[in-house]
Amino acid sequence: MVAVASVVVAVGAVTGTMSAAGGEAGPDRARPVATASPRPEPPPAAPSSPAVPSPSSSPSGARPPSAGASPGPGPSVSRTTGPRRPAPAPTGLYLHPESRVLDWVRANPDDPRNAVIASRIAGRPAAVWFTDRDPDTLTSRVRAVTAGGAAQGRVPVLVPYAIPGRDCGGHSRGGTPDLDAYDAWIDRFAAGLGDGEVIVILEPDSIAQSGCLTAGERADRFASLARAGRVLKEADPRARVYFDAGHSGWNAPAQQADWLRQAGAASAASSDGVFSNVSNFHATDDEIGYVRAVLDVLGGPPGLGAVIDTSRNGAGAPADGAWCDPAGRKLGRPPTLRTGEARIDGYLWVKLPGESDGCAGAPGTFTPSYAYDLAR
User: Fold this and answer.
1) Which of 205, 220, 258, 325 is catalytic?
2) Residue 167 is a catalytic residue
3) What is each CA distance from 297 to 58, 155, 266, 319, 341, in whole angstroms?
4) How far apart (Å, rounded) are the C-alpha atoms in residues 46 and 87?
5) pLDDT, averaged in runs of 10, over the chain (376 residues)
């Protein structure tokens, strides 16, 4: 099977969360909508078994690190050894009131699938994706989400997804024109964070899928990601920023940790840890073992933790490595900041269940038949 990065469609957030994007044509344009995370077909990653690219927010098929793929020089990252602040208090995660699944539930009260979808999907907190290139309204849209969470005393989950060359030219191709534009975009994103508790899932696939870049391009991207983490945490000291660890079927822990370190994920100034399984299907227990192995190799502050996308992993990954709305998948553990597992800070729904990868429906659109199959 080919390990594919999380797939997002450029037109809308395809990873399964609300997409608060503006300035690009397509479904994720006008307002925050719970939609799939925006990434196109994931490029193949090197899995232990034959890999097959999977277009979802994170590569569903995974393989071990590609032979001979060695990370290029990256930004030097200081390894802070001081204690990290404690994990966020379990005050609960924020449910944004605008999403495609909520739109469907409100518009179809008599549909026989309504009650199941409303209670098991629409009523659960999911991430909000920001995917557009036009930064003019970015700060205000981020602020609308973070202010909503602060008003309820709950923690919003935000996904900035605008790195140039995202998805290595797959279905979710796009992003800002260059890294200078990206740095400016992140500055505007950070300006909307406020001063409350917030979780930031920084650029899905940007590290795990970086093997498609040259050594120089990879070093430049990692420098921008390290800067992004610093900017976000300086703007809101209560923000918790997590970096891309791919998933358990993709890169080997040592390879992934090496790249993460170069991108600033071992520095307390930039990072609170890593995330895995975005838009993918790997079982939670597999992901727990994998992210702990990555964190062990990564080093850095002793308190670095991990969050795992459990939105569609209730039945585990398909044996054949299928990534595009594969049959037989189920909802995973509900989103929570109480995991009971050491070093696991949360189970999150980064991909919104029911938003298609592009097979059950158009990429990033809410597909009630698919949602119902996942939820029942």
Assistant:
1) 205
2) yes
3) 21, 29, 10, 28, 19
4) 33
5) 43 41 34 34 31 30 29 33 41 92 97 98 96 86 97 97 86 86 97 98 97 96 98 98 98 98 98 97 98 97 96 97 94 97 98 93 91 97
Q: Would you call 205 a catalytic residue per the annotation? A: yes
Tokens of 280: 């993918």
Q: For residue 221, what pLDDT is reported?
A: 98
| Placement of tokens 């300006």 in the chain | 191
Of 167, 244, 258, 325, the active-site residue reads: 167
The CA-atom distances, in angstroms, between 56 and each of 26, 110, 189 are 18, 31, 24
What DSSP line would sit under 44-74, residue for residue? EE--SS------SBS-SB--SPPTT------
Q: C-alpha angle with apex 175: 173 to 181, nearest 5 degrees?
A: 155
Tell me, what's the pLDDT at 171?
Answer: 66
Whether residue 283 contacts residue 317, with contact meaning beta carbons closer than 8 Å, is answered with: yes
Q: What is the pLDDT of residue 91?
A: 60
Rounded to 10 degrees, the C-alpha dihedral 93/22/273/250 comes to: 110
User: Do 290 and 62 contact (CB within 8 A), yes or no?
Assistant: no
Under 8 Å CB-to-CB from 49, ≥6 apart: which residues?
1, 63, 321
Annotated active-site residue 136? The verdict is no
Rounded to an integer, what distance in angstroms lies between the CA atom of residue 319 and that of residue 331? 17
Catalytic residue among 220, 309, 325, 357: 357
Kindly list the distances between the CA atom of residue 284 and the CA atoms of 59, 220, 280, 288, 354, in Å, as whole numbers in the listed order.
Answer: 15, 32, 11, 6, 19
51 φ, ψ to 5°?
Answer: -105, 155
Output the pLDDT for position 167.
Answer: 77
Q: What is the model's pLDDT at position 2?
A: 39
Question: Which structure tokens are listed for 169?
Answer: 């030219």
Q: Which residue has tokens 């690190």?
A: 65
Pairing of strands 3-4, 44-45: antiparallel
pTM: 0.81
CB-count exposure of residue 93 (10 Å: 0-12, 13-18, 19+) = buried
Q: How far apart are CA 372 and CA 376, in angstroms?
A: 6
> Which two three-digit tokens encode residue 317?
């990954």
